[in-house]
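Supplementary Methods. Inverse-folding protocol.

Structures were first reduced to a discrete structure-token string of length 55. This string, shown here, constituted the complete conditioning input.
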């Protein structure tokens, strides 16, 4: 598993970087994409994790 892999939103282009996390939504830096909560959504456009592709 590549813990530092970045994921990009297929809808709006937002990039989830595990090293940064998503602190505005309670996701700590260092959280791999695979460990994001099931109900986490793109902070820009609101789509779910299934709409992200590994970069």
């Amino acid at each position: 598993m590549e813990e530092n892999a970045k994921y990009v939103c297929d809808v709006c282009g937002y990039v989830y970087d595990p090293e940064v996390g998503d602190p505005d939504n309670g996701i700590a830096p260092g959280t791999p994409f695979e460990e994001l909560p099931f109900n986490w959504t793109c902070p820009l456009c609101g789509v779910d994790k299934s709409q992200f592709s590994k970069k």
